[in-house]
Amino acid sequence: MVAFFDLKDCLDAKENLLWGIADLSQTEYAEQYQTAIVLAFKYAGNMDAAHYVESAFHELLEQCKTVSGDVQNDIIALLDYHDIKYLVPPPSQRDEELLQAPFSFKRAAVDAGIGWIGKNDLLITHEFGPRVFLRAVLADYPFPCDKLSQTQRCGDCMVCVDACPHGFIKGNVWQGDTARGDLIDYMGCNNWRSGFKEKLGRKHHCGLCLFACPYGK
Ligand code: SF4
Ligand code: SF4
Which of 76, 80, 81, 212 has CA 20 to 30 A from 194's CA? Predict the structure, then answer.
């Protein structure tokens, strides 16, 4: 367990970071990797949904990529030092038909006890709300997975539902195995954001349902 204590020392020393370990034994990765180290970085800034600026949100995400990439490199160095096999899954989906990443960071974050899935289909943390940037490193090592998955705490809140100008969020409560299509019209959301590719050179980072969430404000 020396590797775990080294990992804990490394990650507990970081500010504005939630982290946990997800068990991979029931996943398609089980044959090669035992656990996932899951990281949730608080955005370095915040915005009110009423004063939301897309380009500023883009900048926030770019900052998070840099900061979280440095921490991810620390973890990789630590795993290398302990001679532990690892995999860094790609951070976002590239399949425009299924709109699914090969490894679900959100699912892993729930399994690691970091948060729950909100009505807006985002990971919601009690500490920082949905204002987090996720990363994960899969490890062929039995890091202890001792945090329980959280149950949803959205309750009767409908703030994100009301914040979406297109009505893509359906208002249903996530129950652990709820399909994302029952939470949100993810195709509609993706199609709308993809419509900005020519203008922005990338998808639109709509953050209205994210910055509206009362958790982490
Ligand atoms: S990201 Fe924007 S368009 Fe998509 S569901 Fe949220 S508020 Fe609606
Ligand atoms: S705005 Fe309300 S319903 Fe939506 S994710 Fe946040 S807490 Fe849940």
Answer: 212
**Residue 56 CB–ligand 2 contact under 6 Å:** no
Cα angle 29-108-168, degrees, rounded to a multiple of 5 = 120
CA dist., res. 101 & res. 123, Å (int): 15
Residue 3 alpha carbon to ligand 1 centre in Å: 40
Residue 208 CB–ligand 1 contact under 6 Å: yes
Q: Worst-scoring range by mean pLDDT, 11-25, 81-95, 112-126?
A: 81-95
52 pocket-lining for ligand 1 (C-beta < 6 Å): no
H-type alpha helices, the chain = 2-12, 54-81, 105-111, 159-163, 180-183, 186-194, 197-200, 208-211
Measured from the CB, is residue 159 less than 6 Å from ligand 2? yes
What distance in Å separates the CA atoms of residue 108 and residue 147, rounded to the nearest whole number? Answer: 12
